[in-house]
Amino acid sequence: MKCPYCSFEEDKVIDSRAADEGLAVRRRRECLGCANRYTTYEKVEGISVVVVKKNRGRQPYERSKVEKSILRACEKRSCTLEDLKKMVDEVENNLYIIGKREITAEEIGDLIMKKLLEFDEVAYIRFASVYKKFKGIEEFIDAVNSIKK
Fold first, then answer.
1. Which residues on neighbouring strands pair with residue 24, listed in sequence order?
2. Which in 92, 93, 112, 121 has the greatest CB count within 10 A?
3. Which residues contact 120 (CB under 8 A, 6 or more apart)?
4. Residue 34's pLDDT is what?
5. Whether the Cβ atoms of residue 74 and residue 81 lie closer than 8 Å to each other
6. Would you call 142 helix, strand, or coil by DSSP?
7. Handedness of CA 115, 121, 127, 132 (dihedral sign)
8. CA angle, 135 then 55 then 101, to 5°
9. CB 36 within 8 A of CB 3
């Protein structure tokens, strides 16, 4: 590990502990060259998932797209960055639990909708209106009524 201060390549680990609910390891390090301390995180690299789009095109899964869509749905709602990160982590964990190398964009959208419905009904309706391409007020009313049940 290169020191971020002096680029020396040797350090010692001072402290290690679990982070991100056990999904990562946080290590506190001390550079043997300049004695500055810094923190690193180790996380298991996930399996590579390919997303199958509606037009049958394929592209690698990108966490940032899930983050962006949830953030947009939660805009001006009582959603903290921690809430956002937790929802994205849960969606991503569900993708890995499913265990398929290829997953449809629709399956990802459904996972996002499920998490948003658990978190905030307004954010759910916002996401659903874009994801399901609502064409009129009746579709909004139907979505709201489906939540009430």
1. 19, 43
2. 112
3. 74, 77, 78, 79
4. 97
5. no
6. helix
7. positive
8. 120
9. yes
**Rounded to the nearest 5°, which phi and psi values hold at 115?**
-65, -40
Burial class (CB in 10 A: 0-12, 13-18, 19+), 116: buried
Question: Which residue type does 52 have?
Answer: V
- The pLDDT, as a whole number, for residue 48 is 81
Give the SS3 label for residue 92: helix
What is d(CA 125, CA 30) in angstroms, rounded to the nearest whole number? 49
Rg of the Cα atoms in the chain = 20
Give the type of residue at 123.
A
How far apart (Å, rounded) are the C-alpha atoms in residues 71 and 102?
25
CA distances from 116 to 3, 73, 83, 146 (A): 40, 8, 11, 14
| CB atoms near residue 74 (< 10 Å) | 22
Residues 35 and 29: their CA atoms lie apart, in Å, by: 9
- Read off the pLDDT of each residue in 119-135 and give the average, rounded to a whole number: 88
Q: How much is the mean pLDDT over the chain? A: 89
